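Input/output pair, single chain:
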Amino acid sequence: MFRNYLKVALRNVLRYKAFSFINILSLSVGIASFLVIALWVQNELQYNRFHEKGERLYRVWENQHYAHGINSVLATPGLLKYDLENNIPEISKAVRTTWNIEKQFKN
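Output:
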């Protein structure tokens, strides 16, 4: 019986090629989109889970305003670390982040 279903499906695919192509392409794009979104959500939910105090960790994004629009980056200015630690009592420790342009430690 399953063999009969496969025969009928193959005949319909061969008979209606354009319709079958559109359906198969749409299904594959939908599955690929779902997988990409699922991987992104899993990555966001797993962020800092390895740390025992991961619920207390936060990332600061900087919005840089330009003539063509706004650019959001994770790199923060050097003095922001000291300003956050000194002016906001809820922050116990802060760390500065930067671009990965060159190594920060050299031999």
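The chain is about 50% helix and 10% strand. The helical segments are 2-15, 17-46, 80-87.
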